[in-house]
Specification:
Blueprint lengths: L1 E4 L2 E6 L5 E3 L5 E3 L2 E2 L14 H4 L8 E5 L2 H11 L5 E3 L10 H4 L1 H11 L4 E5 L8 H4 L5 E6 L5 H7 L6 H13 L3 E6 L9 H5 L5 E4 L8 H6 L8 H17 L4 E3 L2
Parallel strand pairs: 2-6, 4-7, 7-8, 8-9, 9-10, 10-11, 11-12
Antiparallel strand pairs: 1-2, 3-4, 5-6
Helix pairs in contact: 2-4
Length: 254
């Protein structure tokens, strides 16, 4: 089934498998192909080379409607391991409200006691708080790339606000869930994040811009300086010092 929702092309598809090997974790689950957030820098744009989509990134989502049924079968056959949700889509993008594929997959992983790492930019993850608290081993990360809403709107126009994401971390952390922030890609005006994250996260991951999909955005808005190696080196050290001062553990990925 193919539908149009607010200029988004939504298509229901049937996947052949759902638990994929990952370089980041033991496995990854991507309930969707494509992402409504459509962030200008998103590395997952490379997926179009394999999916045959002609639409722009951010204008289509394929919904793997059989994902829970596949997962139920695969967890019985495969060796248990940590599952990253998700690698090339946001598991809590808006379409999840309707299909609840991420929630259904989490229910299965919880029943089988598999460890999980969630990475999202959406406060929708709070919907599943009841389920998340049932896990013995789970962590939830919110990606936040800048402390400046104007910068956020340039690079992530379809993503919930910075404040909404910080409040989500606070709520999840306050009930005892392990939380983290992924500051990646490292955009201008990140230093203001650190104080806002205090007592809301267990650790922070920091990475630079490793792809060139958004080069035109930097140039259009006069932000070329933030593409240079010395910008990333300087920001990395600034963030490291600020995180150490607040006693927030961190890992530099570059």
């Amino acid at each position: 089934m193919r539908t149009h929702v607010n200029s988004m092309i939504i298509k229901e598809v049937y996947a052949k498998a759902i638990l994929s090997k990952s370089k980041v974790s033991d496995y990854t689950i991507n309930p969707y192909i494509g992402c409504e957030h459509g962030c200008t820098y998103c590395y997952a744009r490379f997926m179009k080379r394999y999916t045959g989509h002609k639409e722009n990134w951010g204008e289509f989502v394929d919904v793997k409607v059989n994902a829970p049924r596949l997962l139920e079968r695969e967890v019985e056959k495969k060796k248990p391991g940590k599952v990253w949700i998700s690698g090339v889509c946001d598991p809590y993008q808006p379409i999840e409200r309707k299909y609840e594929l991420t929630r259904k997959c989490l229910e299965i992983l919880s029943r089988h006691s598999w460890p999980v790492t969630i990475q999202t930019k959406s406060p929708l993850v709070k919907r599943d708080l009841d389920l998340l608290r049932k896990f013995n081993d789970i962590e939830v990360g919110l990606t936040i790339t800048t402390a400046d809403e104007e910068i956020r709107k340039i690079f992530e126009p379809n993503v919930p606000s910075i404040q909404e994401r910080i409040e989500t971390l606070e709520q999840l952390h306050s009930v005892g869930l392990r939380t983290y922030t992924m500051i990646a890609p490292l955009l201008p005006e990140t230093e203001g994040l650190v104080k806002q994250l205090d007592k809301k996260v267990d650790y922070v991951l920091i990475d630079r811009m490793n792809y060139h999909y958004a080069d035109w955005v930097y140039k259009k808005h006069g932000l070329e300086y933030a593409m240079a190696d010395n910008f990333f080196s300087k920001k990395k050290m600034e963030l490291a010092r600020a995180l150490e001062k607040e006693e927030i553990p961190y890992q530099l990925l570059f």
